[in-house]
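A student in our group prepared the protein record below, which I am reviewing. This is what I was given:
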Amino acid sequence: MPNCKSVARLMGAGAFLLLPLLAAASDKEHCYLRDVAAPTVSSAFVLCEQGLVYATTDAGATWTAHDTGASVTLHAIAFSDEKHGIVGGQGGTLLATADGGKTWQARNAGSTEHVLALFALGDRAWAGGFDGTILFSSDGGATWTKQKAGTTMALEDIFFLDPDHGWAVGWSGTILRTADGGKNWVTIKTDAASWSLAAVYFSDLKNGWAVGFAGQLLHSSDGGATWVAQKSPTTSWLTSVAADHSNRLWIAGDDQLLFSADGGATWRGIPVQNMFVSRVFPLGDSLRALGELGILKQGGASGLEWKRDDKLVPAGAQIANSLEDAAKSTTGKLP
């Protein structure tokens, strides 16, 4: 039987929130990896939507599981350093930690809308979610206030390059940008966005990419004021963008990883089986790719090969067995 998230992928972006959960959020014996934060070169925090957080402070050599105590499904995680982090999820749930995930405290979001995205930068943090909700904290997630987004579309991702310049994307091709830390968000109208967007990333104040449903891949060269649709090698759901140490750009695309070696001008795909890749993130001297049931590690002389990283095996005998069965086939490289 396919799990809830696998079914949702067939239905489209955001559909997971409209489906009944196949496993209770409080069931810590099962874990579907949902999001990740990598605040330093050697640290990363992987979120299990059932409420666990797997933490590493030694570049992935070892992982430790911490229970957030959440009683609802969690969707997003952000850390500003190795100690201070936030998780968010259904019903406006926000929890914060100041000890690297060992203990968590509930915070009052002032909203009951589902939290889908979190971004932390120093003491500042932003949360995005249903009905165009954007929440802002200036004290590391202790207190939150609402910012006016100017949209009722659900926001799937928020990215800030510095405390002032940020971008948000979401359903129905929604793109927002701000130049004052979110005091004012501007809605960007563009014909290039024909489907819902799931992730946004800027390498500098001019060049950025937004990706989403049906292989949608957009580029901006003017700070997000205008966007151009790029040729995409896939129709998969694209959900994350990151850069590696060789300045290649990488995009998580469900059953494959896309990469560009020319600054995003052209893109190629590397097939990945059995992982449902949703995030790419830096850790140590390479990138990792997050799937539902585990992570892949970038390697090979060219940096274009991906193999399952067995240092992190999520909770649950069923999931562990699935990983073992798929071990021989969960590799990705150019055909």
